[in-house]
Amino acid sequence: MGEERVLRELNRWEQELASYVSNDFEKLYEMWIQEQFHKFPKVIQQRFFNSVDQWLIYTYTFLQGTQTQNDAYARLLQVGRTYDESINTVEDLQTLSIEKQTYLAHQQVAKNRLYSFVQGGTAGSGGWLLLGVDIPLMVGLNLRTIQLIGTSFGYNMHNPIEMLLALKIFHAGALPKRLRYQAWEELKEAVREYDSIMMDHDTLTDPTWAEQPLKSIFKTLAIVLFRKKMMQGIPLMSIGIGAAMNYKTAKDVSDFATRFYQYRTLHTANK
């Protein structure tokens, strides 16, 4: 019954993703972004994507080596043992029902959204230093959450293939909604062709990701613009913009990641 319930929810979510239709403004915006980006020489474009890829990989591996993340993995195993005392390793979590795995993942998602909300609000209230570290912190928080969601479903996130999948999930979840369904289909194909992921790997980011830096710039400009509008000495508008946008990104990425690992678990079980 639990698997059937999760499958229904997953199918409903997937249908909503597939049926999303871009409005005229989104289409014009996408055309403008692509037009501006393609003005750069291909060598510069490739260098940009390679730099972003390397930064994401470095951030992912750095997070995996932190004591905070290791402690989080240990807590997940401890909670897992309350369901099954024989659980000793991350892979043992795969023996739990998908509803219990999803519950473990939702605990991590709730924390990430709270952290992202606070971090965004802090960036909106502070100076240029806090604004400057906003993007790295936001990326780090969301990658950390994907690692914990994957672990909740019993996958060893230290595995290089799992790392590539997690980075692709982050890329897909952070895309505008109109582009997520295609990325979702590509990830489903990656699950079916799991053993060839490393061979097929070229780049993680592509021109569809070009909107993300621009969105971050718009957020920074909005925070700076409203920073002088104080209420009792507090820039509430700037804090609200930073908190709301980071919360939305965290929600989009964590929802996408949870649905992916649910799909993967069901797909593996039905093989």
From TrEMBL:
InterPro entries: EcsC. This is EcsC family protein. Pfam families: EcsC (PF12787). It comes from Alkalibacillus flavidus.
